[in-house]
Write a structure and sequence with these properties.
The complex is a heterodimer of chains A (205) and B (178). Chain A is α+β, with helices and mostly antiparallel strands and 205 residues long. Chain A is built from 3 helices and 10 strands; from the N terminus they run αββαβββββββαβ. In chain B, a hairpin with a 4-residue loop joins strand 4 and strand 5. The radius of gyration of chain B is 21 Å and the shape is elongated. Classes of the chains: A alpha+beta (205), B alpha+beta (178).
Chain lengths: 205, 178
Amino acid sequence: MARSATSRTGSVLRWGLAIIAGLVVGVYSAQKVMTSPGASFATARGGIWRTSLDVGSTTANPYVRAVVARRGLLGLSSQETVYYNAVVDRDGQPLREACDYEVTGKGLPARWWSITLYAEDDFLARNADDAPSIDATSIVAGPDGAWKARISRERAGAANWVSSKAAGGMALSLRVYNPAPTVIADPLSVDLPVIRLLGCRETSQ
Amino acid sequence: MSRAKAWIGPVIAALVIGAVTHVAVVVAAPSRIMEKAMGRLSGDGARTNRWTHAPRTSPASRQIVRPSPDLAYSSCVYDLSKGPVLITAPAWDDYASLSIFAANTDNFYVVNDRQMPPGGARVVLVQEGQPPPKVDAKVVVSPSTRGVALLRYLAPSRERFAAAAAARKSAQCASLAK
């Protein structure tokens, strides 16, 4: 009798544990794939930029859909806009507020483009610099259309500047509005801007 | 039953429950996130079927992730349960778009300034099977009863934002239910 009761208790415990473990692992792993810094809806990645043509798409798979909902809610479908995201520089090092960067680029085959800096929480960095982005309408470019922009906590005399003050770990979002068919056909074949590390100030972090 | 054998059933159950839970959470995420966003954009439903014009994007703009500081946004959380909703977007002299999103985040309709008639976009949103009302507007079927319409007006500077803010004032988002 005693033995059978013990085995029943053991069985209840095992099944109870199995159910709890299953739920915990299921919820945790789902949150993890949707929220980890590497969580990206990208299905295409170049050196720096990642993108997906599935934003807002009615055919996107559940993972793409989930991460888009978290990271790019209300994003337009790719016929209208292609969104690229960068969290690393050209050497693959994570973008950080403590470092200064230079972004170089040329015009893009689209009606309008912009590059915006987002803080870790996917909102504009909490600073009063009023320099959260550069865009096709205001970029100061050379006669050949080539431009360079500084990404840093200070402008330091740069013609084009995006402030990274109070950004922490950060991401750059490149929006390409009304892209040419070539962009939609192969978004990474486009000559995309390059992000180069200028230097870091470890002490000031 | 040996100790190890007694665990076989529970371990398999844990794996199955884990996998099912994982998929369920991922599949449900967009609608859950969208539901929360619709609540924020509409003041928990107080501003349904009307445009809310967001101020110029700043670090304080925290309703929707990754807002562009170069665009003037307006949003309308629509609800078709009582009848069709008329949505209009006034013309703008630069990039502008009216996009409509279903409750599961799908961008099921978008029209930009170059595709709009000269006076701007006029859309009447209906549910599947709902007879479209007799209004001079493009009929668009929404896959969900509720969703979000968004206006984007390219306005990268303070001056352009002020102009866009004036242009979008006449935008309509209104229930046609009698």
